[in-house]
């Protein structure tokens, strides 16, 4: 039963073959996702300026998610595989630990945003505005997907 899908082949779609433009398209889509996440939370902060309805300490999740975005994308895929970075004090293991810490921060900010959404805006339904909780969650989800797309959607030579 383990080889049931061995002979199944997914047809290759030639209409989305980007070739040399793949890095540019991935960078643009990732940037739009990142921008949209921050735009949602800025809109919520402008719509609900009162600290009682929207605690501004909730912005910490987005800041940590942004730091995680830079941590995740600061190491190349070649460094993770051990092809590009063999010298230095940390080497391939250090690059993998650095990437792991970035993903921990990213998942942590996404989990904290879920907790804020459900703990403060869904369960305690007495709040007048629910958009700030949704905006915090959307911000962190979009930053997370932006970092994944930018890390794994591009080829190794980003600007080549």
Structure notes:
The radius of gyration is 20 Å and the shape is globular. The protein has one domain (25-82, 90-152). It is mainly α and 160 residues long. The N and C termini lie far apart (44 Å). It has helices at 22-47, 59-72, 77-81, 91-122, 131-152.
Count, helices: 5
Helix content: 55-70%
The main β sheet shows up as: none
Number of domains: 1
- Based on CA atoms alone, the radius of gyration comes out at 20 Å
Distance between the termini: 44 Å
What class do helices, strands and sheet pairing give? mainly alpha
Shape descriptor reads: globular
Low-confidence stretches: none
Helices and strands, in order, run as HHHHH
- β content, as a range? under 5%
| Beta strand count | 0
How confident overall, as mean pLDDT? 84
Summarize the structure.
The chain is mainly alpha-helical and 160 residues long. It contains five helices and no strands. It is a multi-pass membrane protein.
Question: How are the secondary structure elements laid out?
Answer:
Blueprint: H1 22-47, H2 59-72, H3 77-81, H4 91-122, H5 131-152
Label this structure with key terms.
160 residues; mainly alpha; 5 helices
């Amino acid at each position: 039963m383990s080889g049931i899908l061995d002979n199944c082949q997914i047809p290759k779609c030639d209409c989305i073959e980007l070739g040399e433009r793949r890095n540019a398209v991935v960078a643009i889509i990732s940037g739009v996702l990142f921008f949209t996440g921050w735009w949602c939370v800025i809109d919520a902060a402008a719509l609900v300026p009162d600290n009682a309805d929207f605690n501004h300490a909730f912005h910490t999740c987005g800041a940590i998610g942004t730091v995680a975005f830079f941590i995740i994308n600061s190491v190349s895929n070649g460094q993770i595989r051990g092809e590009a970075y063999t010298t230095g004090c940390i080497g391939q293991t250090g690059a993998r630990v650095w990437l792991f810490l970035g993903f921990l921060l990213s998942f942590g900010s996404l989990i904290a945003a879920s907790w804020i959404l459900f703990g403060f805006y869904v369960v305690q339904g007495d709040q007048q505005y629910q958009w700030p909780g949704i905006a915090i969650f959307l911000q962190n989800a979009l930053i997370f997907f932006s970092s994944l797309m930018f890390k794994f959607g591009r080829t190794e030579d980003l600007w080549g």
